[in-house]
Amino acid sequence: MTAKEKMAIPPQIMPEQDPKVRAHNMNEVALGFPKEAAMLEASRCLNCANKPCMQGCPVAIDIPGFLAKAAEGDFAAALSIIKETSLLPAVCGRVCPQEKQCQKFCTMGKLLKDADKAVAIGRVERFCADYARENGTEEAVERKPATGKRVAVIGSGPASITCAADCAKAGHDVTMFEAFHKCGGVLVYGIPEFRLPKAIVQHEIDGLKALGVKIENNFCIGRTRKLAALVKEDGFDAVFVGTGAGLPKFMDIEGENLNGVFSANEYLTRANLMRAYMENKADTPFWHGKRVAVLGGGNVAMDASRMALRLGAEKSYLIYRRSEAEIPARGEEINNAQEEGVEFLLLQNAKRIIGDDQGKVCGIECLKYELGEPDASGRRSPVEIPGSEFTLDVDTVVVAIGNESNPLIPATTEGLEVDKRGHIIVNPETNMTSIPGVFAGGDIVLGAATVILAMGEGRRAAAGINAWLNA
Question: Which superfamily does CATH assign the domain made up of 150-246+405-470 to?
């Protein structure tokens, strides 16, 4: 097929649940490509000699290579190519911001002068992973002979899953320690079922177990046992810290301690990990607000505002102090939220939260803003409009303005160096920390980032661990 013929193929549309229906259920919004659509979309790839799409992939997947196999209908071969560098294709195909990474550099999008017409790399990746899982065509992962070395992996998010898998494949004896009762980190407590079904995450955890990785849940390093004891007393030869960015930020405004105010972390963890939405099966306490205000504009804010509708809210407001053009969330998530009925209150922000005589939220006082000069990041800074205060009638406020690094391990580990934001400082080539034999990666190093960036950190740390143990 010539380049001209490929350019004539229209981008394939992925089917979705109807917005009016999906806003009231927890089923996945995007239904995935049919087989023929996946093949046709993959065939749009121009197979550029310089592979510009790979420049935007944090783990450097051979994108043209896997798309070529998918176009032929050889999805098992396509998945094998992806898994050479990416362990979680079914996850990344759903939640990674491909439009800001691989698809941003796609030649097809540039030739058609429309970024939305780039090859849908993530959606084909998702299809390949789903097809293999559903049809039992995944290839077994090879493991090298046992080295006799022991590796402890702290946390079970994407960085930790990747590091654990690479270390296990190298022949090391790997034990993963997870503070929660389920593994998956942000993939299970942060991202809702309607974006990432938990069965998919569990499938990847089962794959780790098949590799021989031992998992200890309800084991909080820094509380149950200190990190130093893993090396000095328990005999681990190397340790990887991947505890993420789990400390929520608040606005420090009046009323944040009222009943009915939640961090997005708590709100989503109760609903996602603890299944509060399954009222007939779960005993998880949950605040079922009828008029919910979510403060923030990132993907987490979108998740919380959409979750509120699914938990019975009559009104779900998203309050953001800039315009829609500056919202940092993925365009797909913004569109989905708007389609489902989330009401966007832009160029506005909370000034104080109002409580009733019982200490419960009954309203929120907001200020209106206008955009001024660009800030250090290049986005135009919001500027308050004096005298523009107004009150919104709400009974629930969810604060979704970002997270900071989990402080527990740095606070309980002598000699572990962190920067002023609490991020663990590592060697950029090996991801080793200031303590020999202790490595770190993911959001605890980067700050809140994407799944695939965390995976890249886990892979680099695993390479550092393997080199350290073989030295």
Answer: FAD/NAD(P)-binding domain (3.50.50.60)
